[in-house]
Specification:
The complex is a heterotrimer of chains A (403), B (654) and C (254).
Chain A (H helix, E strand, L loop, with lengths): L2 H19 L8 E8 L5 H20 L7 E8 L4 H14 L5 E3 L3 H14 L3 E3 L16 E3 L4 H14 L4 E5 L4 H17 L4 E6 L8 H10 L4 E4 L3 H13 L8 E7 L1 H4 L11 E4 L8 H14 L5 H20 L4 H8 L3 E4 L2 E4 L11 E9 L2 E10 L8 H7 L4
Parallel strand pairs in A: 1-2, 1-3, 3-4, 4-5, 6-7, 6-8, 8-9, 9-10
Antiparallel strand pairs in A: 10-13, 11-12, 13-14
Chain B lengths: L2 E2 L14 H36 L6 H19 L4 H25 L9 H23 L15 E4 L2 E4 H23 L1 H11 L1 H6 L4 H21 L11 H16 L4 H21 L1 E4 L2 E4 H4 L3 H12 L27 H15 L7 H24 L10 H16 L5 H23 L4 H21 L1 H4 L5 E4 L8 H24 L1 H11 L1 H6 L4 H27 E3 L6 H14 L6 H19 L3 H15 L4 H10 L4 H7 L1
Antiparallel strand pairs in B: 1-5, 2-3, 4-5, 6-7
Chain C lengths: L1 E12 L2 E12 L3 E5 L6 H8 L7 E6 L2 E2 L5 H6 L2 E4 L11 H12 L15 H10 L15 H13 L5 E4 L8 H18 L2 E5 L3 H7 L2 E6 L2 E6 L1 H6 L1 H9 L10
Parallel strand pairs in C: 3-8, 3-9, 6-7, 7-8
Antiparallel strand pairs in C: 1-2, 1-4, 4-5, 9-10
Classes of the chains: A alpha/beta (403), B mainly alpha (654), C alpha/beta (254).
Chain lengths: 403, 654, 254
């Protein structure tokens, strides 16, 4: 390369830099929140989620905004990749000058942004990451989590599982942190309530790449009395179909985390596995006024029914709005202080961000899968309040690092 | 893989009463393996045929498979999911449609770049992956689509007391059937003879006056048709979803390489081997040896790559591979290196000084972006060092970046070293990885070498991904922030800039130094290099290690700039990003990788902010660049300026 | 002085005797031509000398030192230069850099990471290029040279390690007839100046009989004749072999 080339390059670079610098003016009459998520990687969950938060923003602004200002969400795709997520977090904080961060879906991205929030002293409300670590082992002062975690949802299924008094359990889980945590929590909690329980086989297929037929046959060969699964998405669909063809689920109780969420249940259509115990979201049957108001507004705006993602997105913005109202300021330390013990209403009922570990008490619906009009639904369901499925305060204190 | 200290499971089951059950289990898992192999074989056969004739490594082959699944879903819905005609008509229709899409791709894109360096074709097909993914998102939406069961084949048959799906029996038959038909097509028709001739010697077929473009187009149709068929027949077993492309392409590459590039029979064998290995890993489950539990089901995460690594180490051309004719593009000779003259160094110093002044601009995010660009420039420069001067294409270069990340992170978190020392652990860790992996890789060449680097990267990835206690598993490690004096963004920026600039300048010097010349000598003519006393492999190995060391340094800086790392730092997508950066910038120029890294990072950052379909736009941008500037950005600028410059260069151009 | 000595060389491939009991010697400053019809075993023989093939039995010594079992690059280090039937040069380098490459290797200067290679052994390289008449093209890339010029570059490369022996496989293949004589003239001149032993194989009988000091003839793996050009030309067995193969002896070449 020679000088002339270099000159050209420098010129091109200069233009690029100038272009970069030109964006990001900050209006005074808006409150900006930085939202990021892996929209492309987990589109099935996150499209309804986006609609959910859009609806919430619209409603808040229609009723006069916050602190006399309009609420604005600056949303970015983090590519499902912690490196990109941290860069985007930097961009949101430094260039967009957002007041705090919300969002994220996969656990590793959530943890990376949580670490960033701690380092840069920014409030972060993690909406969806289910990992227990985000509030416990790797929890920090600035990070709060909305959804019921892997541990909590597993704990919600355990009482039903223990009722059956089945001795030999098979476990199948996607081979990454979520599946591993769910499995570990299930084994621990089952042993506590039913000491003679045996785990006869564990299958850990790679996420998104289950060889469902082989896994179903291997489980059948182990002759279990019941199955605990934390599969979801395409893995779940494949496992259900191959297991059904092979009669694996005949007279076999199955417990499956998340499988009642419309995101994962609806694609199964008429093959939804009847009788499975699941956590999920029976939007069609919830009659509480706060849910009805939400669901009606959602259907009206988008001409589509809400998924669990819609609830998460909607509630996340409600949390953000509630904390801003409570703090009365956008000062980070005051916001963080206000988050502790913050209680507000959501479509699922009131939730509280626990002061001891920054975890919200949002619950989940536990029920059995049934079939209606060729579609999977949840039957015999009830709302399991998150507050009741958390470890003791002493245990939590042991897990959380000192501030 | 992951060993857990529990004593459950039995290495020797008390098998007397269980022999019959055991046998039934083995038979049924064997059948599962056979069913799994079929579709894998179809995709791989298509990839292999396309490679054999056009020498194009078609990254978009997995995307064609994905389209096959989606189209089958839609067509079966259209024809009626409950009729036998509806199902098979949909499957066949989808395969034909995908074949036609392959023709369109060949005519619109690939035909224009047959003469470009082969790596550029790779880049073009990668761009197609991005475009096709977003097109599928646009047409079919984000939700998983669970396809219908095959009409008339919904049930199961009884085999040794176990129920086995009827449809899987059909799948088991499809593999050998297609293998037989392909054999007939290739060995008993004039078209097949031409294809085989072209696979062996492209120039000769051209010389015989055969209509080459017609041949290529028809080969693309067949290859794409097979990919589409492979996807379509999976519709009762595989929900249509947007991640299929990446999953399948890596599997298909592995099968093709294990079988031997261009060998259909080899692909069949390899598909069988890999599918059976997976089925049996699942069937074996947990085994306890000496009190520790070995989980074979977790091993399925990486089993195909382990098989590939072993096969390539033992048989460098795959199971049934033969030495291919000369690669296309071998005729395009790289021009000599120009000495790094004083004006060049003045420009470099000027640019670095300019960059060092950036913090005065007051835009903090610009610094964040520039840190990313600096880090990826080093990463791309090391990959270029391998691909360009050393002639070793790596599909798994992220391994060394990631090992650097983890080396630094573990030194900081586990050894409690100060950040400055932990950063030194980064090149150490990656250098060590490169030393071990490189020793095997330099024994191969071309696509086989590239695939072995990929295998090692995937193996490293899977170990880090699963080793929860040490590497943090899939969650990764957090809390990796720099020391107090570097906490300030400006300080860290200047620190990174200094290290990255020094690394890149060092690499440039190395390329111009005797060591770099030896690598180029080995690439240009291993025969001649050997005849003047050069141990080519040994120097390639050293080169591999050197590239690994600096890639690791980039990784270490990356870790401290982000504060957290995850297995993604050594995933395939990171390796592909590196390839795209190098190819965008131009392989034949030294400054190309830096330009490529800057443009790629900047494009990704700015496009992603403005549109949901940023992948497609990035893909289209890459296609435009590939079609307009087949020499890369820096290569294009160089060519453009060459027209006006010194007599020396004109001499070269003439 | 005998530079290369070959005794009892044998090689078979899967039961086919490719080379049987071949013995010959090359002296310093001597040009020895190895000829024979296609498939006579010339290449096999050659490749056993340069280390690419290992003989089944036999002794190959360079100035008394055995070459058996050594790799080509080790044989080069002992002072054996090579040119190839199809030229092998570094096409992305200039002519001068090609020579510098060989010189760097000769002076064990390859593990150097900082100083530009382009500036090292520059004068020495130019001197070598001067000897083969390529000095005026020293800055051109090898990739765009005419074939005849490439042959000269190869010759210069082969001279870079101050060889005692030059192994030239079909040195004039692919060249125009007038260029062939010129190249071998040059080779002979250099060999005599530097006292280098030269062993070459060759198809072009004009070249062989014009330049070789001695000729050995190989047929079906055996040496059937050895001697001066005149002796070989007069050898009836050689005539029979060449007539039988259809080649024109002392003719135009092919």
């Amino acid at each position: 390369m020679n000088r002339r080339t270099w000159l050209k390059w420098s010129a091109a670079f200069g233009i690029a830099v100038a272009g970069l610098m030109g964006s990001g003016a900050q209006a005074q009459d808006t409150i900006k929140l930085g939202e990021m998520n892996s929209y492309k990687n987990f589109a099935a969950f996150l499209e309804p989620y986006k609609k959910g938060w859009e609806l919430a923003v619209e409603q808040i602004n229609a009723s006069g905004g916050l602190l006399g200002k309009k609420l604005e969400i600056v949303s970015r795709d983090d590519n499902g990749n912690p490196g990109d997520a941290v860069r985007i977090a930097e961009e949101l904080v430094t260039r967009e000058k957002v007041s705090f961060l919300i969002g994220t879906f996969p656990s590793h991205v959530g943890l990376a942004v949580a670490s960033f929030a701690k380092e840069k002293k920014t409030l972060f409300i993690a909406a969806e990451p289910l990992t227990d670590k985000i509030v416990w082992d790797q929890g920090n002062k600035y990070t709060f989590r909305l959804r019921a975690s892997t541990y909590m949802q597993t704990a919600m299924l355990v009482p039903e599982a223990a009722k059956l008094k089945k001795k030999r359990w098979a476990i199948v889980y996607p081979n990454y942190e979520y599946g591993q945590s769910a499995t570990a929590a299930f084994k621990k909690l089952m042993k506590e309530v039913q000491p003679d329980v045996e785990f006869v086989i564990e299958q850990a297929p790679p996420l998104g790449k289950i060889e469902a037929g082989a896994v179903a046959d291997a489980i059948a060969a182990a002759k279990p009395d019941a199955i605990f699964s934390s599969l979801f998405g395409a893995d779940l669909a494949k496992f259900v179909r191959e297991g059904q063809t092979r009669d694996l689920f005949k007279n076999m109780p199955v417990f499956n985390l998340l499988a009642g969420e419309p995101e994962y249940l609806d694609p199964l259509k008429d093959e939804a596995p009847v009788g499975w115990w699941v956590t999920g979201y029976p939007w069609y049957a919830i009659t509480t006024p706060e849910h009805k108001a939400f669901a009606d507004a959602y259907q009206k705006k988008f001409n589509d029914y809400p998924r669990l993602g819609s609830i998460v997105g909607y509630s996340m913005v409600q949390s953000a709005a509630a904390v801003i109202k409570k703090a009365g300021t956008l000062d980070t330390e005051k916001l963080v202080a206000a988050m502790k013990g913050l209680t507000h209403s959501t479509p699922l009922g009131n939730i509280t961000y626990r002061p001891q570990d920054n975890q919200s008490t949002m619950g989940a619906y536990v029920g059995k899968i049934g079939l209606k009009d060729g579609k999977g639904i949840m039957t015999d369901w009830y709302y399991a309040d998150g507050a009741k499925f958390l470890p003791s305060d002493a245990d939590v204190a042991k897990m959380r690092p000192a501030q | 893989m992951a060993a857990r200290p529990s004593g459950r499971g039995h290495f020797f089951p008390s098998f007397f009463p269980r022999v019959a059950a055991l046998l039934a289990n083995i038979v049924i898992q064997f059948m599962n393996g056979l069913a799994g192999a079929s579709s894998l074989f179809l995709v791989a056969a298509g990839l292999s045929i396309i490679f054999g004739v056009s020498r194009i490594v078609n990254f978009a082959h997995g995307s064609l498979y994905m389209l096959g699944v989606y189209l089958a879903y839609s067509l079966i819905e259209f024809f009626g999911r409950s009729s036998i005609f509806g199902f098979w008509g949909g499957v066949l229709g989808a395969a034909i449609a995908v074949g036609l899409i392959g023709v369109v791709i060949e005519v619109l894109v690939l035909r224009r770049i047959y003469r470009a360096p082969e790596l550029f074709q790779l880049l073009a097909t990668f761009a197609l992956v991005l475009v096709i993914k977003d097109a599928a998102l646009y047409f079919w939406g984000a939700e998983d689509l669970v396809g219908p069961r095959a009409a008339g084949l919904r049930g199961a048959v009884e085999i040794m007391g176990k129920r086995f799906p009827q449809y899987d029996l059909v799948l088991i038959a499809i593999g050998p059937l297609v293998l037989g038909l392909l054999w007939l097509l290739l060995n008993r028709t004039r078209w097949g003879t031409l294809v085989r001739a072209a696979t062996q010697d492209r120039e000769m077929v051209g010389a015989l006056g055969v209509n080459q473009s017609g041949l290529f187009t028809s080969v693309f149709f067949l290859g794409a048709f097979l990919a589409g068929l492979g996807g379509a027949v999976q519709i009762p077993r595989e929900p249509a979803q947007l991640m299929l492309d990446i999953t399948v392409i890596s599997d298909a590459f592995v099968v093709v390489v294990v079988g031997g590039m261009g060998s259909i029979g080899g692909a069949f064998l390899a598909a069988l081997l890999i599918a059976q290995a997976k089925a049996f890993c699942i069937g074996i489950g947990d085994v306890s040896i000496f009190g520790a539990t070995l989980s074979f089901t977790k091993f399925t995460l990486v089993v195909e790559f382990v098989i590939m690594a072993i096969v390539l180490v033992v048989r460098p051309l795959g199971l049934l591979g033969k030495l291919q004719g000369a690669q296309r593009g071998a005729a395009t000779v790289e021009p000599p290196l120009y000495p790094l003259t004083r004006p060049f160094w003045i420009a470099v110093v000027g640019l670095v000084a300019l960059l060092a002044l950036m913090p005065l601009g007051g835009d903090d995010y610009l610094l964040v972006l520039l840190i990313d660009i600096a880090v990826f420039s080093v990463f791309a420069a090391t990959l270029h060092f391998l691909m360009g001067p050393s002639g070793m294409v790596s599909f798994g270069h992220a391994a060394y970046f990631g090992l650097g990340c983890y080396g630094a992170a573990l030194a900081l978190l586990k050894l409690k070293l100060p950040m400055e020392l932990a950063l030194l652990a980064a090149p150490l860790a990656s250098g060590l990885g490169a030393l071990v992996f490189g020793w095997f890789c330099v024994r191969l060449s071309g696509v086989y070498l590239a695939m072995l680097t990929l295998a090692f990267a995937q193996i490293s990835w899977s170990v880090i991904y699963q080793w929860d206690a040490f590497t943090g598993g899939s969650n990764g490690l957090v809390g990796l922030w720099p020391s107090e004096w570097l906490k300030d963004r400006t300080a860290f920026y200047l620190f990174t800039l200094a290290l990255c600039a020094a690394s890149i300048i060092f690499l440039w010097r190395v390329v111009h130094a005797p060591f770099g010349y030896v690598l180029r000598a080995g690439r240009d003519s291993a025969l001649r290099a050997d005849a003047i006393g050069i141990d080519v492999r040994r120097f390639q190995w050293y080169g591999f290690i050197l590239a690994g060391v600096f890639a690791g340094l980039a990784g270490g800086l990356f870790a401290f700039s982000k504060g957290s790392i995850s297995p993604e730092t050594l995933a395939v997508s990171r390796s592909v990003d590196g390839l795209v950066m190098v190819l965008l910038g131009g392989v034949q120029t030294l400054t190309g990788p830096v330009a490529g890294a800057a443009v790629f990072t900047w494009l990704q950052d700015s496009i992603a902010r403005n549109t949901e379909y940023w992948r497609a736009i990035l893909g289209l941008a890459i296609l435009v660049i590939v079609l307009a500037f087949p020499q890369g950005i820096a290569g294009f600028l160089k060519q453009a300026t060459a027209r006006f410059t010194s007599a020396r260069e004109r001499e070269v151009v003439r | 002085m005998t530079v290369l000595s070959v005794k009892g060389l044998h090689k078979s491939f899967g039961g086919v005797q490719a080379v049987q009991d071949v013995n010959f010697q090359v002296a310093a400053g001597e040009l020895l031509a190895l000829i024979g019809p296609n498939g006579a075993g010339k290449s096999t023989c050659f490749n056993m000398l340069n280390g690419q093939l290992r003989p089944d039995t036999g002794v190959v010594t360079l100035l008394g030192r055995s070459l058996l079992g050594l790799a080509p690059r080790q044989i080069w280090r002992l002072g054996v230069g090579r040119t190839f039937q199809i030229t092998a040069t570094f096409n992305s380098m200039t002519v001068r850099e090609n020579i510098q490459m060989a010189l760097l290797s000769f002076h064990n200067g390859l593990m150097s990471f900082w100083r530009p290679a382009n500036a090292l052994y520059r004068d020495e390289a130019m001197a070598l290029l001067d000897r083969v008449g390529m000095a005026d093209q020293s800055e051109r890339p090898c990739g765009i040279l005419a074939y005849g010029d490439l042959k000269r570059v190869e010759l210069a490369i082969a001279l870079a390690n101050q060889p005692k022996l030059l192994l030239m496989d079909e040195p004039t293949a692919g060249m125009a007839p007038t260029e062939r004589i010129a190249l071998m003239d040059l080779t002979a001149k250099l060999a005599r100046q530097d006292d280098i032993a030269v062993l070459f194989t060759e198809h072009d009988m004009d070249v062989v009989f014009a330049q070789a000091d001695r000729i050995i003839v190989l047929n079906r793996g055996r040496l059937i004749a050895e001697g001066s050009p005149d002796e070989v030309r007069a050898n009836p067995e050689v005539q029979a072999v060449y007539l039988g193969s259809g080649a024109v002896f002392a003719g135009e070449g092919h």
